[in-house]
């Protein structure tokens, strides 16, 4: 059964970016807005963010948005677009104040101001040393942002379609975006949502890798849908591994531990970051620290020769850990039986964040292969690439990206809807997805999605992870393409209509496979090392040839075409990057 | 009906037994991977067999609910969620439950585990024994297996004005709040809306109109926030006959909370504020 709805503006995804956009849309008089989310919005992965959100509030010491912008540009290994970065770092200050005014319960200084602490890669005076810039609510900053935004959406009467999986875009014949197709999880019905404007705020795709901090839901749906609709994906080779995930499980241990003074130690008890980053040490940027940990492990200095090192917070005292880092203490006790007050935490790098995604301008408008605006389509948050993170994101800048660009997306969409009309529906807008689901459900003998997914995750972890080289990635690409073939014969055991999460997991695997392929193709193509992308066969950054964004577009026949986009460079000229 | 899967090496033959046929599934035809045992997704060398007895009900096909048993190989340090995943991914894809973050933050997977409300991702297999019974949380309509209708729960939440209200003038800077004032509602900011508390509450089981502990927790979070100006309205909502006075101080909610919120204490503070008008003290 197919249902039809008409709105002015639709937001796909109920995390930080989507809800911030929805709040702004809900303030526009007369605008009909809905949020469509595969989960109840409070389940979104924004809620798992821990350490903080940076803004140069200067509540504890001198700080300036320009310093924040420099750190972000340097953190990005000069691939971030400096116009976007400037916008983000300047708007950080009023947006944090706005979140406080919305009720967000930040931790406080003795004077009652928003508390701030140091974070990786954030410095004073353009790299002179760590600065207290990260605003936080204990170690559940993301949770508080998500809750506060959801609460404000309720206050403003936003319409929600919870547990509706968006499965396709509605693209009018004239190239405008005219809505989305959604699958109602509870009934298996398809819904055609027509609208003047759509924002994708669909989050990340960390489930491509085997060790990840990401939720099961982080399967890159919006990014994969865009790819299939011929929208290019930008900088997909840049995927961040967070230095400190719980060994084996990948669960995030916030950089806030190191912000509060925690240090990394190898099997000899050595504080090895002193060798890799003499000034910032354990608070160097994430690519640098993750690589250092992996190198220690590879060279046999993991604990007991195993694939982990220690994050030691035992010298911080019970007070700091219980009050400023209570959740991570709970994780360690629950999953490891380790009390971080008394023992060091076993950690290894964990797949965490996609710097790349759907290309947008600073108004969150999605861009096509020729860098022109696609009318009616917007993207914000992790699924988007406005390129504030370039080749490596700084800690806290993802939450900031969500709220700054979520807000900008809402403002831009409301303005656009004032004059735009509703694009005509193309013929059979649900044809593609109906054919896909019918094909998957018709398979009676095949292999389970989980097996294909595990093989994909293993090969991506080994060959397209922290250390990369050409032949290994070529082999991984062959493997991923073989898995895509095998996916054509994936077996869904549940043939029913209601809550068919078996079918959805299979469909999500299709998304992950497409994004694994694009990531690998992009990574093979870029023959240099920059930020999170380390090529052991091309160890140096090569600005002469590679100071440019990668764009990968899927052609009608399924092949991938590579093109490029220039990097916006303003006041910060590329320099060698040392922490 | 008997569904079989084969594994290699130490993998046990996984068998399912159920009274009724699980119509709508192709579980009987599913073959486990030839190269790998049928372990939990991350199970290592120490994997052990665990019997998982699961509540099954699909209103599309079943007249009555039933229990079905599965055997899986999981590490003692795996989560109960990993055991459910091992079943869903390799034995019976129709087994249905909600999950997302898998580390106790998103609140999707509250369920009854050996009779007690828990998050499946926050209970380790070694702590539940070799046989574990998994059932949906109680008091809401079962939509399929372990999935219940959460709409009434969110309706309770929305009924207590669960958002910051202060329409006074704002400046270009943050409102000030002392560390002590911030501390007064810290505990109740931790709520992840998983419903473990409300669905463990006998007062709620007896009366579905009771607003329930989770909604009171979320009201508390604002009532005791020194920056908020609508405590009186919330207290008057909770002074209603379906409000805090339905709480009989049974403490089930506090024991069920995966975030270790002292819920009964918070409810007590709300009761006191209604009686003595002490929300701002």
Structure description:
The complex is a heterodimer of chains A (579) and B (281). Helix content of chain A is 35%, strand content 21%. Chain A is built from 16 helices and 26 strands. Chain B is α+β, with helices and mostly antiparallel strands and 281 residues long. Chain B has eight helices and nine strands. Chain B starts with a strand and ends in a 5-residue tail after the last helix. At the A-B interface, α3, α4, α10, β21 and α13 of A face α1 of B.
Concise overview:
The complex is a heterodimer of chains A (579) and B (281). Chain A has 579 residues and is α/β, with parallel strands linked by helices.
Topology as H/E string of chain B? Answer: EEEEHEEEEEHHHHHHH
Fraction of residues in H or I helices of chain A: 25-40%
Strand order of the largest sheet of chain B: 4-3-7-5-6
Overall morphology of chain A: globular
- Spans of chain A of at least 5 consecutive residues whose pLDDT stays below 50 are none
Total beta strands of chain B: 9
Based on helices, strands and strand pairing, what is the structural class of chain B? alpha+beta
Q: What would you call the structural class of chain A?
A: alpha/beta
Under CATH, the topology of the largest domain in chain B can be stated as Ubiquitin-like (UB roll)
| CA(first)-CA(last) distance of chain A | 58 Å
- Please describe the biggest sheet of chain B, giving its number of strands, its sense, and whether it closes into a barrel: 5 strands, mixed
Most extensive interface: A-B, 68 and 75 residues
- How many discrete domains of chain B? 2
The CATH architecture category of the largest domain in chain B equals: Roll
Computed Rg of chain B:
22 Å
Shape of chain B: elongated
Number of helices of chain B: 8
Rg of chain A, rounded, reads: 22 Å
Average pLDDT over all residues of chain A? 97
Strand order of the largest sheet of chain A: 7-3-2-11-19-18
Total E-strand runs of chain A: 26
